[in-house]
Design goal:
Pali-domain-containing protein; SUR7/Rim9-like_fungi; transmembrane; 202 residues; 6 helices; pH-response_reg_palI/RIM9; membrane; alpha+beta
């Protein structure tokens, strides 16, 4: 679920204009912003909110800090990729249960959770600043959050749940398997001692 949500967010505007982080309306004309730009732009790594986009000049929205934050949105497709690797690491679990496979799956899922959470926090920081600046300007320009914000939040929640389930279920199976093996070994050892010549009374 988290992987699917992260993929949807990763193809937001300008690739998929129906998925966007913020909607800026200038003079009644709507413009959706996503990871690699807005719906009227070519995809790019990093962008700003200049006069040609929002209809007025704002030094805060064209600052290097804002530009760098838009670059950091690349964390979304990275998080989606790590989630996919975590999904792939599930496959060995259906054939064997071991400490290595369980720890491997848990680590991939935890890393995906951290990346998904970090990318969502960047979304909130970046687009809250943009929305507030545009609303403070007033006039015939407005801005509001888009659905990608909430899709990203849902991805965070899904990844957290997945990590919790994997920890409780997979490690539980490993512990149960390990306890069973230990019991078998103790039984074999007791039988060997029982029939060992050293145990016989002379």
């Amino acid at each position: 679920m988290s992987m699917a949500l992260s993929i949807v967010v990763s193809v937001s505007a300008p690739t998929l204009n129906s998925v966007y982080f913020i909607d800026v309306v200038v003079g009644g004309r709507s413009n959706h912003f996503g990871i690699f730009g807005h719906k009227d732009s070519a995809p790019s790594f990093g962008y700003d909110f200049g006069p040609s986009v929002i209809g007025y000049s704002d030094s805060q929205l064209t600052s290097p800090a804002i530009h760098n934050l838009t670059k950091a949105l690349i964390l979304h497709p990275i998080a989606a990729s790590v989630s996919f690797l975590g999904f792939i690491s599930l496959i060995p679990q259906y054939f064997t249960v071991s400490t290595f496979t369980s720890v491997n799956q848990a680590l991939w899922t935890f890393l995906a959770f951290i990346l998904t959470l970090a990318s969502w926090l960047i979304d909130i920081i970046l687009f809250t600043i943009v929305r507030r600046a545009i609303r403070d300007h007033g006039g015939d320009i407005t801005a509001g959050f888009g659905n990608a914000i909430w899709l990203a939040l849902a991805a965070v929640a899904a990844q957290f749940i997945a990590y919790g389930l994997i920890r409780s279920h997979r490690f539980g199976k490993v512990c149960s398997s390990g306890t069973g093996d230990m019991g078998d070994n103790l039984w074999r050892e007791s039988q060997l001692r029982k029939y060992s010549p050293e145990e016989k009374i002379v």
